[in-house]
């Protein structure tokens, strides 16, 4: 089993880009999950490429649906959306779920999980809890409580409990609608700051976690536990372009540190040469420590804007995503 997969999603040009005369600088190449960017035709190959014509259902059905079953075999699963602010991370993940429009990854995954549970209820007992937190400026905040408190991360793996956050709200859910109501409630409390890039840019990592416990009815000692982290990462743009100063500038530095450490960890996991992985260098990677590598499955969805105005940031996202995968880039196939 390949433990880290990378999907690229290129969103359509949005109205503001069209109005300001932007053109698309990213081209999907035929027959391979490969794109080229810019005039000098730099090309990148991923496990999946979704272009602007491919909707939420296709992204989910091809890249995510077949991973869900792993949770029922005891593997942890992590899906991360990476990209600059405005590139489509929240849209793709469905973190801002409100029951309208085309559903993103989180609600589709929640429905599939409960469909599987329903189909196995005869011989299996399930316990499902969800938590929802935000990592902002290297601090963790619980999104499911009225009084946001900073949380700490404790490593309980020696006691077989994995990475824990004592005091973090974990709500028991009986069905998909329960879980989605909690997602909706939690996302309304996210820290959102305005930068020159996007009036409502997300400056924090949002982590929605589904914990599943599976007990065999005929053999109650036979218990499987797994964790599913769905992560809408903070914008990857460099602070120079956002025009951020003061607190926002500090945020930019912290956000980029987390993303940089995450990129290092994933590429260390991918090349398989490292006996020591630097999880401890950021809160984000400490939090995900038992769910990246080892007995877990990871999908990174790299999101990019196709606009030429954003070419530099898109190249940086493609490079970041490229480091996170094992497969080598294929040379551009000559189409003449
Ligand atoms: P981010 O979370 O990366 O900051 P958003 O998910 O908020 O970006 O997307 C920015 C805008 O682009 C939103 O208005 C969103 O609805 C739109 N958008 C993003 N991806 C797509 C897509 N694949 N198809 C249509 N609209 C999209």
Automatic annotation (TrEMBL):
Residues of the Kinesin motor domain: 3-327
Lineage: superkingdom: Eukaryota
Binding site for ATP: 83-90
Compartments where found: Cytoplasm, Cytoskeleton
Similarity comment: family membership: Belongs to the TRAFAC class myosin-kinesin ATPase superfamily. Kinesin family.
The protein's name: Kinesin motor domain-containing protein
Native species: Apolygus lucorum (Small green plant bug)
Entire protein: shown range: 1 to 336 of 1098
